[in-house]
Design goal:
This protein has 79 residues and is α+β, with helices and mostly antiparallel strands. Helix content is 25%, strand content 20%. It is built from two helices and five strands. It has helices at 20-30, 35-43, and strands spanning 13-16, 46-48, 51-53, 65-66, 75-78. The strands form two sheets. It has a three-stranded antiparallel beta sheet with strand order 1-5-4, with no helix packed on it. The protein has a two-stranded antiparallel sheet with strand order 2-3. β2 and β3 form a beta hairpin. The chain starts with 12 loop residues before the first strand and ends with a strand. The relative contact order is 0.23.
């Protein structure tokens, strides 16, 4: 299954290069309206045989962006 999320933000969004954890956190926060499912997905995940699978994998974000080089180069800007 693929979920595509589009957004328009009133301000510039600044994310670190390793933004997957932030996106995952936002999704978990959003599905807390289904407490049992949210807990199951976060704590257990799905299994097949002896393998355990987590629910989320991410592609690269798409759209306009810039990487700002600073002394601590961890920023990702998108608009």
């Amino acid at each position: 299954m693929q979920l595509i999320i589009e957004h328009d933000l009133p301000e510039e969004l600044i994310l670190p290069i390793n933004y997957n954890r932030i996106l995952q956190s936002i999704i978990y926060h959003g599905i807390k309206i289904f407490p049992e499912y949210s807990e199951y997905v976060h704590d257990t995940g799905y299994s097949y045989g002896e393998r355990q699978y987590r629910v989320f994998t991410f592609s690269l974000l798409k759209g306009k962006y810039r990487i700002e080089e600073t002394e601590n180069p961890t920023g990702y800007y998108t608009s």
